[in-house]
Design brief:
Elements: E1 10-19, H1 25-42, E2 50-57, H2 67-72, E3 80-84, E4 95-105, E5 114-115, E6 161-166, H3 170-182, E7 185-190, H4 194-202, E8 208-209, H5 213-217, E9 222-225, H6 232-242, E10 248-251, H7 260-268, E11 272-278, E12 299-304, H8 311-319, E13 323-326, H9 329-359, H10 365-370, H11 378-387, H12 389-411
Parallel strand pairs: 1-5, 2-3, 6-7, 6-9, 7-8, 9-10, 10-11, 12-13
Antiparallel strand pairs: 1-4, 2-4, 11-12
Helix pairs in contact: 6-7, 9-12
Catalytic activity: chorismate = prephenate
Region (Disordered): 126-156
InterPro entries: 6-PGluconate_DH-like_C_sf, Chorismate_mutase_AroH, NAD(P)-bd_dom_sf, PDH_C, PDH_N, Preph/Arog_dehydrog, Prephen_DH, RutC-like_sf
Length: 413
């Protein structure tokens, strides 16, 4: 009997590049992680197929090694090489490049290079976007570069769920990236910062950029609002007014108390509103920190404003690779005060306490790990901590009592 399965024993290589905003360790690692994630997504590669990775960085990027991004993504068994580029007059500053060697590809397969953001200028032949979505049936007219001539000309393909993603930072961007893998979703994105929408579209994370929240929600089956907690009530109300009757609405806020009334009001309008919170994320922020695997095996709490969790919301959570958990809003906020919000404040306090010693080189990995959360987006973290102040205060008093007992035990010998 002849084996008719395709031959995927070949080895191939693929290149990529990404600009880095500034010479900081976290910025270099986040940009490189985004490049690696996009390379795998665009070429539908699995991490197990990576044979080796060679990284180069321009000489103005010396705060960290780009290869550390691969280690943080779990590439622990992949040989990695870092090199400093020879400076060339007039060359683009602050750029990380990578050459991946991969196995398990069909002979003759041509892998797609990925040059993100301004790095696209290094490869003008890829001007249409290295990982732009494949045009769908029913999409609008395209220009010479293959990009839609007008966002309004695009339309979701038949039978695809239309999801509006409001906010394209780490959480919203990661949702968009993962749904691209899941298929069956037409992703329309909107962000108050227009650059985030363009960046997400260029990366293939969304199918269409909307010019407003209302435009994104028009005709949508589901709207996901992934913005800071203090912005959610107003955006939930605006989305509920723009969505068609019977559509679903999901937020991703870290605190439930401030949004409960807004979700109830949306439900009263005939919108199937659900409070949600993915227990995932990192200290990174912005679309640059978005990863398609961010929610893999993570808990995604769900608190319906009325009735059961809508099918569209349940499907989205499962397509993200997450585990849905229905929970009462009050219980959620008490738990997150102890497991997320108070730890952020403690990390900030520890960083302030030991900053001089750390700068003098008198700190180890324990201090780094304990203070990692302090690098979170202060705008976002401050909003969810303030919104959950009562529960955070209760958690702090419990922690302080525990610490006082520990100190008393030490003092007693």
């Amino acid at each position: 009997m002849t084996d008719s399965s395709p031959d995927r024993s070949g080895v191939a290589a693929v290149r990529g590049a990404v600009p880095v905003r500034e010479n900081r360790s976290d910025t270099i690692v986040a940009a490189t992680a985004r490049l690696l994630t996009t390379l795998l997504e665009v070429n539908r590669l699995e991490r197990a197929q990576i044979v080796s990775a060679i990284f180069t960085a321009t000489e103005d990027l010396d705060a960290d090694f780009p290869a550390h991004a691969a280690r943080r993504l779990g590439w622990t068994d992949v040989p990695l090489l870092n090199a400093r580029e020879i400076p060339v007059p007039g060359a683009m500053p602050r750029v990380v490049r990578v050459l991946l060697t991969v196995s398990g590809v069909a002979p003759g397969t041509r892998l797609q290079p990925v040059y993100l953001d301004a790095a696209a200028g290094l490869r003008p032949d890829l001007a249409s976007g290295p990982d732009a979505p494949t045009p769908r049936a029913g999409a609008g007219a395209t220009g010479a570069a293959g990009a839609p001539s007008s966002p309004a000309a695009e339309a979701p393909p038949h039978a695809a769920r239309h999801v509006a993603i409001i906010g394209l930072g780490q959480i919203g961007g990661s949702i968009a990236r993962r749904l691209g893998r899941a298929r069956g979703w037409w992703r329309v994105g909107y962000d108050l910062d227009a650059r985030a929408g363009l960046e997400a579209r260029a990366a293939g994370a969304i199918d269409q950029v909307a010019e407003s929240l209302e435009a994104a929600c028009a005709g949508a089956d589901l709207a996901v609002i992934a913005t800071p907690v203090d912005t959610l009530p107003g955006l939930i109300a605006a989305a509920a007014a723009a969505l068609p009757p019977g559509a679903a609405l999901l937020d991703t806020g870290s605190t439930r108390a401030p949004v409960t009334a807004a979700l109830a009001a949306a439900a009263a309008r005939g919108i199937r509103a659900v409070g949600g919170h993915p227990l995932a994320g990192s200290e990174g922020h912005g679309f640059a920190a978005a990863r398609a695997d961010l929610f893999e095996d993570a808990t995604f709490t769900l608190s319906p404003a009325a009735g059961d969790v809508p099918e569209a919301v349940a499907r989205l959570v499962l397509d993200l690779g997450a585990r849905p958990l229905t929970v009462e809003p009050e219980r959620h906020d008490r738990a997150l005060a102890r497991t997320s919000h108070l730890p952020y404040l403690v990390a900030c306090a520890l960083r302030e306490l030991g900053v001089a010693e750390a700068e003098a080189g008198l700190s180890g990995p324990g201090f780094r790990d304990m203070t990692r959360l302090a690098a979170s987006d202060a705008r976002v973290a401050g909003a969810y901590v303030r919104a959950n102040a009562t529960a955070v205060g209760e958690a702090w008093r419990s922690l302080r009592a525990s610490l006082d007992r520990a100190v008393e035990t030490l003092s007693a010998g």
